[in-house]
Amino acid sequence: MVYKPVEPELKAKYNLDYYTKHKQRILTNNKLKFSCVCGSVIAMSSKSRHLNSSRHFNNMHRNEICNKVIEEEEQKKMNA
Fold first, then answer.
1. In a domain, 17, yes or no
2. Structural contact between residues 38 and 67, judged by C-beta atoms closer than 8 angstroms
């Protein structure tokens, strides 16, 4: 597919029209919160950005380490 360049004025007008038509849905979606498995609570509108962030990866790594330590402690209690 070949895309032709869009003039900035037309793009701005389209964005404004889209926003005015879907304003209520956009604002509602921005208010929704998402509880991530890493422990963060973020807005749904920034979910994709969060899932690719270093904060998410660091929290997930920390959770994995904590889970391993807890499992090892449980194994020691079971063996003792």
1. yes
2. no
CB 48 within 8 A of CB 36: no
Backbone angles phi, psi at 43, to 5 degrees: -75, 145
Half-sphere exposure of 42 (CA within 13 A, CB side): 16
Task: Identify each DSSP E strand in 1-80 by its residue range.
Answer: 33-35, 41-43
**How many separate domains does the chain show?**
1
**pLDDT tens string for the chain (80 positions)?**
677 778 889 999 999 999 999 999 988 888 899 899 888 999 888 899 999 999 999 989 888 888 888 888 888 888 86
Structural domain of 26? 8-79
CB burial class (10 A; 0-12, 13-18, 19+) of residue 1?
A: exposed
